[in-house]
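Final report, closing paragraph on structural work. Over the funding period we assembled a curated collection of sequence-structure pairs, and we close with a single example.
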Amino acid sequence: MQPGARKLEQPPADFLAHRNIAGIICAPGSRFAAILSVATKDTRNHILLQKVSLSPTTGPRPMRVLLLTHYYPPEVGAAPARIAALARGLAERGMQVTVHTGFPHYPSGTIARPYRNRLVQVRYEDGVKVVRSLVYPTPNRGFARRLLNHGVFAAGALATCFASGSLDVVVAETPPLFTAFAGVIYAKAKRARLALNVSDLWPESAIELEAIGEGSLAASAAHALARRCYRQATLITAPTKGIVESLALRPEAAGKVVQVPPAVDLERFASLPEPAHRAGAPLRVLYAGTLGMAQGLSTLVEAAALAGPRVVEVTIAGEGPDAPLLRQQIARLALQNVRLRGTVSPDRVPDLYAEADAGIVLLRNLPIFNGALPTKLFEILAAARPTILAAHGEAATLINETATGLVVAPEDPNALAAAFRQLQSEPQEAIAMGRRGRQAARRFDRATAIQQWWELLNS
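Its predicted structure, as stored:
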């Protein structure tokens, strides 16, 4: 040692890491391993005595959360994007997050490459453990095949629940209702609490859409299954006041229901400029979402035909069971101002709005949809585009109160065509609606929703 040099005490954390060790002479028993010293000798036969902490890292164990969901990226749509964002957000906040889902096949019915349908697969994506289990892949149409698809995933998830490890909470997405029921059994098997996120009331929606008959054996069985799921849940969340109020009236759900409002990733749309003033040009309207029974998109095609190509150009981006019918309708009417883009990656949605002057949301004229707030509505607001809304209920109240668009009666093509003409003739007002929309969207920031989930799961 150099003259005047001071001997440094080796930190316990670095002990045995700074030199070669010939052997360990003695070590404490397990009862005292956290507090006693370890005696060793080095390669020069010197005896070393150092206190070593062998106890695990202090601090509480992270909460272990499982998200059980039928839909997950790379599948496209509002639900996969929302659930993936929640999984990442909870993991970033210190939770140990696992997602149990199926192999991606929605909405085409074909397993997406490079995935292969198998019993189980485990991967890590963005700090989240993703367990995928067997599915019966089928296109998103045909009630019986979709029911089988839902049932096979639920059974496969339960058969492979060992892959998720120990859990504290299971959060099951519903619909599908079979996923909620699988969540009940999954949570019991793991001795975990159960939370249900009810994004739509089922079987009520299926009955109003006439997918199953009211009073039928299928409807009665679905109601009984839903009641059992609600009864077993510790927490029930829903995105709208209408769903919350409906559930809160049911004895099996009363006192457990909390609203977690819909949310949008504001950063995805923050860089979009306002639409340019195009005097006299057709209004470019974008529909980006599912082409399903709930939307009634034939009304949109008919309204575009009534307004004509000088007034409106409509782009429909998405897939779903109604896509073949829409193609037939467009061909029959020989429309040049309506085009179908097919499935679009979520990453491309902001680009589509950048090319649009307005966004549109449609819902069928059914009471069940009075309590609906489609995710695409919030994307339109965040994109600073005026919203054309063909719906009643909570969505209409939001647009009217914020003055961020035009509201017309659902399934009324004449009223919708009139809305196209109004926005096309008033471009400055359309731009002002879009500005107010971007302001209104700040209330629905996705980070706020994730924080609410974090607080609910910790409470």
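The first strand starts at residue 21 and ends at 26. The mean pLDDT is 87. We thank the funder for supporting this effort.
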